[in-house]
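Private note to self, pasted from the team thread so I don't lose it. Backbone tokens:
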């Protein structure tokens, strides 16, 4: 098992902590990248399903109950364009995901947002969807708009089990929609990265291998994610004895909610930590602002429990994955705190990687 960077990260973090305490080094000025590498721009937090495991829409909650914890809505065109144009104008490569705590295909202007982002060659734009509304017409519109990646949530290969947990879903329809989308990509010879994600319930475990084999025939990447109890940020995929380091998300990722609020990270479903609002500030100013730097400094100092969301969270572990090559499937497997990801590689990519085993 190879944990590529955990010891290195830990030592670096000790040195940073000592330097911050001694006032010798302004780590945050020199080590926060100019722009986030990943931006989640939540187009809406409304959803057409009520998946039982979903922290935001779990089927026992009514929309009224949910809106007490965070207002529900759709991003305005003006605000979406403001964020997209600023990120596009940065010229930096940014992975832009147009989903958050809801279903992005419910937004009537989703293709217009993709088209706006698609004009910027530095923005790798796409989203994760439950696939229910991925009609032929919308698929054509998204491909015309220049979508670069699409990920669909499909939980296993058993329609009865999937529909039991993804309440309101239709397994056959989602698979048919996605396969038709894939067919359009092939017919047009487009370079769209295609992913599928399975959230695994206990009774689906025997089907995981078949699911992976089935979807690797059609897509570039298959991920399988153990279902976490609602609201839990703990993961059994984190090996014992790995020392905690500052969370990479705070240094790489920005999460913008539909009303412009900037959340702490993608685990901040109810916007418990607000770092600013892009309606009144720029992405750049919030990214380098005092509130963002404060939470980074708390992590650098090792005071993880000072932020209640971070106290019980394993998501920081993403930075130190186990990586190996699955010879039988001919793909790379990356294990992190959230999921196991099976990625198809071309021969060049495979040759460049070193799968040393410890
Ligand atoms: C919140 S959804 C948003 C996008 C879209 N509505 C969808 O379902 O793909 C993002 C992903 O989180 C997964 N998810 C929801 N609850 C989960 C849980 N308790 N544990 C692990 N993954 C979960 C969903 O299956 C989905 O793939
Ligand atoms: S489809 Fe996605 S956002 Fe909607 S309830 Fe299910 S997991 Fe939550």
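Design output:
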């Amino acid at each position: 098992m190879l944990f590529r960077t955990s010891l290195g990260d830990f030592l670096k973090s000790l040195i940073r902590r000592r330097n911050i305490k001694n006032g010798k080094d302004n780590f945050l000025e020199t080590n926060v990248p100019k722009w986030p590498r990943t931006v989640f721009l939540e187009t809406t937090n409304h959803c057409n399903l009520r998946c039982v495991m979903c922290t935001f829409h779990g089927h026992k909650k009514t929309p009224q109950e949910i809106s007490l914890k965070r207002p529900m809505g759709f991003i305005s065109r003006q605000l979406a364009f403001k964020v997209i144009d600023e990120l596009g104008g940065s010229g930096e490569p940014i992975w832009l995901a147009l989903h958050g705590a809801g279903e992005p295909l419910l937004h009537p202007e989703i293709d217009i947002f993709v088209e706006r982002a698609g004009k910027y060659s530095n923005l790798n734009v796409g989203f994760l969807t439950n696939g229910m509304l991925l009609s032929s017409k919308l698929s054509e519109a998204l491909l015309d708009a220049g979508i670069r990646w699409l990920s669909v949530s499909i939980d296993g290969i058993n329609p009865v089990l999937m529909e039991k947990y993804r309440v309101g879903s239709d397994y056959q329809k989602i698979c048919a929609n996605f396969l038709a989308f894939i067919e359009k990509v092939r017919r047009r010879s487009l370079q769209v990265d295609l992913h599928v994600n399975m959230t695994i319930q206990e009774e689906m475990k025997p089907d995981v291998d078949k699911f992976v084999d089935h979807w690797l025939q059609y897509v570039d990447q298959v991920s399988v994610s153990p279902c976490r109890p609602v609201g839990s940020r703990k993961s059994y995929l984190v090996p014992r004895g790995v020392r905690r380091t500052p969370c990479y998300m705070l240094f790489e990722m920005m999460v913008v909610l539909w009303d412009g609020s900037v959340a702490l990270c993608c685990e901040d479903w109810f916007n418990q930590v607000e770092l600013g609002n892009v309606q009144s500030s720029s992405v750049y100013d919030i990214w380098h602002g005092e509130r963002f730097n404060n939470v980074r400094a708390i992590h650098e100092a090792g005071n993880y429990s000072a932020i209640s969301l971070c106290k019980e969270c394993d998501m920081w572990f993403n930075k130190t994955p186990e990586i190996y090559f699955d010879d039988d499937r001919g793909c790379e497997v990356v294990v992190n705190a959230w999921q196991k990801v099976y990625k198809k590689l071309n021969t060049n990519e495979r040759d460049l990687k070193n799968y040393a085993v410890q």
